[in-house]
Write a structure and sequence with these properties.
The complex is a heterodimer. Chain A is an all-alpha fold. Chain A has one helix at residues 2-18. Chain A is 85% helix and 0% strand. The relative contact order of chain B is 0.15. Classes of the chains: A mainly alpha, B mainly alpha.
Chain lengths: 20, 97
Amino acid sequence: LVRIQKNKAAALLRLAARNV
Amino acid sequence: SKSHSQPSASRASIGNSGMNETGNFGNNFIPANGLTVTQNQVLNLIKACPRPEGLNFQDLRSQLQHMPIATIKQAVDFLSNEGHIYSTVDDDHFKST
């Protein structure tokens, strides 16, 4: 579960970085 | 040669890297969201999967039989790099962000 949450958080950060 | 062009130059390189990557997939039609048709197909299948662990790579292959495995992998890698999808229980299961 921790792994999944970490991956999701990292993906959200990448997505956010692309949309700056 | 102009020193004040530095910030815009770095911004441009960020934008260009994304465009170059989409170009690598050999799909010249780019829809409104900036993804290729292939990338959209893969993303939509992953979005449509109701399972909590997400869609696995075998499912993608069986639902995109017309598509070479390498093409599917490229699309998955791209979507993952861009943050549209993330891996869950293992590196073969994906959910959309």
